[in-house]
Amino acid sequence: MPKPNFRYTHYDLKEIRTGTIIEVSLNAVANVRLMTAGNFQRFIELLDFKYVGGVARKSPVRIAIPETAHWHVVVDGEGHNGLAESSVKMLPPNPATAARKTA
Questions:
Q1: Model confidence at 4: pLDDT above 80
Q2: What are the CA-CA distances from residue 20 to residues 33, 62, 68, 96 (Å)?
Q3: Can you say whether residue 93 is alpha, beta or left, with left for phi > 0 and alpha for psi between -120 and 50 degrees?
Q4: Does the model's pTM come out above 0.90?
Q5: Which one of 20, 22, 52, 100 is separated from 61 by 20 to 30 angstroms, measured CA to CA?
Q6: Separation between Cα atoms, residue 74 and residue 8, nearest integer Å
């Protein structure tokens, strides 16, 4: 199976609920790409893929999960000087915000 010709760090987040916030901390400018499992498979097969995110110039980067699914985060240095060191944590959805949306 082909792999992208640039270095990246991959985080398999498993299934995550809508509204969860993914926080990615970086030590340099990098691309932060949040993608579903199917799109991650397309990414590693060098096919067109869809993602949420983009170039991260500030740290930390926070991205809200748009739908409940199996998600992956890819941090890569494509177009940058190198691969940034990174870490990822998940912040659960705010119950007060969720309650307002359903009311």
A1: no
A2: 16, 10, 9, 13
A3: beta
A4: no
A5: 100
A6: 6
